[in-house]
Amino acid sequence: GQSLNINIPPGLSVKEVNALLIEAWRLGVKGLYYQRSQSISKELLSNIVSCRSCES
């Protein structure tokens, strides 16, 4: 398993954060640390959260 550190934009909704955490779990991530930050691109994170090919 993999552990990840993720910076999440402050404007991301609770639903989107939850979807991100569930997707990480589905992908086998063993540890996840996240914090809300302005330093990451909201568009990039939004694409990860709404990745249709990641859903099953």
Structure description:
The protein has a two-stranded parallel sheet with strand order 1-2. It has two helices and two strands; from the N terminus they run E-H-E-H. It is globular. It is of the alpha+beta class. The longest helix has 13 residues, at 14-26. It has one domain (2-54).
Please render the helix and strand layout as text.
Layout: E1 2-8, H1 14-26, E2 29-36, H2 42-49
Parallel strand pairs: 1-2
Please outline what is shown here.
The chain has helices spanning 14-26, 42-49; strands at 2-8, 29-36. It is of the alpha+beta class and 56 residues long.
Order of helices and strands: EHEH
Beta-strand share of residues: 25-35%
Distance between the termini: 20 Å
Calculate the mean pLDDT score and round it.
77
Please identify the structural class as seen in this structure.
alpha+beta
As a whole number of angstroms, the C-alpha radius of gyration is 11 Å
Helix-residue proportion: 25-40%
The main sheet orders its strands as: 1-2
Q: Quick one: biggest sheet?
A: 2 strands, parallel
Number of strands: 2
User: Which descriptor suits the 3D outline?
Assistant: globular
Structural domain count: 1
Low-confidence stretches: none
Number of helices: 2
